[in-house]
Specification:
The chain has helices at residues 3-10, 58-73, 121-137, 155-168, 178-185, 188-199, 241-251, 269-283, 289-315, 328-357; strands at 19-24, 32-38, 45-50, 86-87, 96-98, 101-107, 112-113, 206-208, 217-220, 226-229, 236-238. By secondary structure, it is an alpha+beta fold. The strands form 3 sheets. Strands 1, 2, 3, 4, 5 and 6 form a 6-stranded antiparallel sheet that branches. A 3-stranded antiparallel sheet has the order 7-9-10.
Length: 358
């Protein structure tokens, strides 16, 4: 996209100062992100093209983000640094629509650091503290939130998609995946039993981030302390265990999510303990007995769901995630399954750690 076009899009938002430059920022799997630099002392901004194929209701998503960030701002000492600040258009909207594309802007928070990977227990502890803090700040949030991605982390919905995928077999790949299909079917009952506890309210629901990898936490560059959670596109109401489980899937993996060398992939108990300790330092008192009981299992649940989602995407022709080569999503499936097996093998010790830290 040309600089001229990006400047035209940015001009629809209520920015302070004159735009100096707009440049790509990072390589997100879902959205396209740019940093808008301004002249002088005016703030810089993040300009983002929201993927309306992944998020079919971008207006509702932006309403969710605005609601939770405004709630957090009322509870922190530095609201411009301790949560995102959404910038409206000149017409007072939370997004600008350009053809089929939806664009949104927030203030760039300077003096911050992000990490692509948690490479130490100390960093895992801080990441756990960051998500625990995010959930704690929203513990009294009582507004309804839209379900911007239908059935996200809802395994009943995922199995409905799965059953339809097996029936339709759009790419003719079912016949080559008998082993992988058995992985899924052998765990169906266990996963459904867990989710039924959420559906009945035995496991309560709260505001959840739903994408808790380390790169979605901002750290203060000067102090190293957690500042805030970012990338709030998936903020919805669900069980807080989803956030914990998804983080463990990311933080504690000794390999890459798409690691072609499966021997690299294990779940590190050291990283599991560190993240859990950080998370519970913020959430220990607020959690119900049932949430603590199922906290360790949530890592298995979310990792299983990711195996299922990767496999379905491969069966569907690799349409959801960006890929570097044909079959990339099947490689992701196998790596994620190896991580799942490692978690299942170490589950008794994971439970023991949670009990000790609780």
């Amino acid at each position: 996209m040309t600089q001229e076009k990006l400047r035209e899009i940015a001009s629809h938002f209520s920015l302070e100062g004159e735009v100096e430059s707009i440049a790509p920022l990072g390589e997100g799997f879902i959205n396209d992100t740019f940093v808008v630099r301004t002249v002088g002392s005016a703030p810089d901004y993040i300009l983002q093209r929201k993927n309306h194929n992944v998020f079919p209701d971008v207006p509702a998503m932006m309403d969710n983000i605005k609601a939770v960030t405004e709630h957090i701002k009322r509870k922190v000492t530095d609201p411009l640094r301790q949560t995102l600040t959404v910038i409206e258009t000149h017409d007072g909207a939370l997004y600008h629509k350009d053809g089929e594309n939806f664009w949104a802007v927030c203030i760039f928070i300077p003096g911050t650091t992000t990490y692509d990977r948690a490479d130490s227990p100390a960093l895992a502890y801080q990441g756990g503290k960051g998500i625990g803090q995010f959930q704690r700040l929203l513990s009294d949030f009582d507004q309804p939130l839209s379900e911007t991605i239908k059935g996200f982390h809802n395994i009943r919905h995922r199995f409905e998609q799965w059953d339809q995928m097996l029936k339709d077999d759009p790419m003719g790949r079912v016949k080559e995946l008998s082993t992988e299909i058995e992985w899924i079917e052998s765990r169906r009952a266990e996963m459904m039993a867990f989710w039924s506890k959420v559906e009945t309210g035995e496991i309560p629901t709260h505001v959840t981030h739903n994408d808790t990898k380390i790169s979605n936490i901002l750290f203060d560059s000067a102090t190293g302390d957690v500042l805030c959670a970012i990338d709030l596109d998936t903020v919805m109401s669900s069980t807080s265990l989803n956030d914990f489980g998804d983080a463990i899937r990311s933080y504690a993996n000794t390999g890459a999510e798409d690691d072609p060398v499966l021997d690299n992939v294990e779940m590190s108990l050291e990283m599991f303990r560190a993240y859990t300790e950080g998370y519970l330092s913020e959430q220990r008192e607020a959690m119900s007995a049932s949430e603590k009981e199922w906290l360790a299992f949530s890592a298995i649940y979310i990792t299983f769901e990711q195996v299922l989602r990767f496999l379905m995407d491969y069966m569907d022709g690799e349409k959801y995630w960006k890929t570097a080569y044909e079959g990339h999503t099947l490689v992701r499936t196998h790596a994620q399954y190896k991580l799942l097996q490692s978690m299942e093998r170490q589950y008794p010790e994971m439970r023991r750690i949670v009990e000790e830290l609780s």
